[in-house]
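Dear support,

I submitted the protein below through the web form. The confirmation email said the job was done, but the results page showed an empty box. After a refresh the structure appeared. I'm attaching both so you can tell me whether what I see now is the final result or a partial one.
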Amino acid sequence: MKHLIWKLVLPMTIISFVIFTKWYYVEVVDGAYEILTGFPVPYMCPCWHTSLCLQIFVSGLLIDILTYLAFWLTITFILNKFVVRIKLNKTVTLILLSLSGLLFAGMIFMGSLSDNIYTWNREFEIKKLETGYKFIWEKQPLPDYNK
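What the results page shows now:
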């Protein structure tokens, strides 16, 4: 099972973490409308002091990553133990490791921007207006609550 964790579970965790997420259209108390991102809890939103930077909430990020990891560990364990013995061939392993490495490098690059703000918890109150799920290539519909 140890080789499956390194060759299947971790790459699938990274790939699914980057590709699939949930968005929250919220009203920040004493503020404007904002979009938060993260599944199952929001861990990221745009910064308010400058564009192209992020506010990242570390506790939410850890919860989200551990949720994805637990999901893929459970699926892999059940399939490997009770359904069919998983044997990865080298091509599949190479594709998974390459794709996850590329996505992980992109996450590290985005996370290392000097204007990003890291806090342990979200330091502002929100009122959820609308939520939805999306893949990275989809745009979420934004309702206009300013009317």
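Response: this is the final, complete result; the empty box was a page-load delay. The chain has three helices and six strands.
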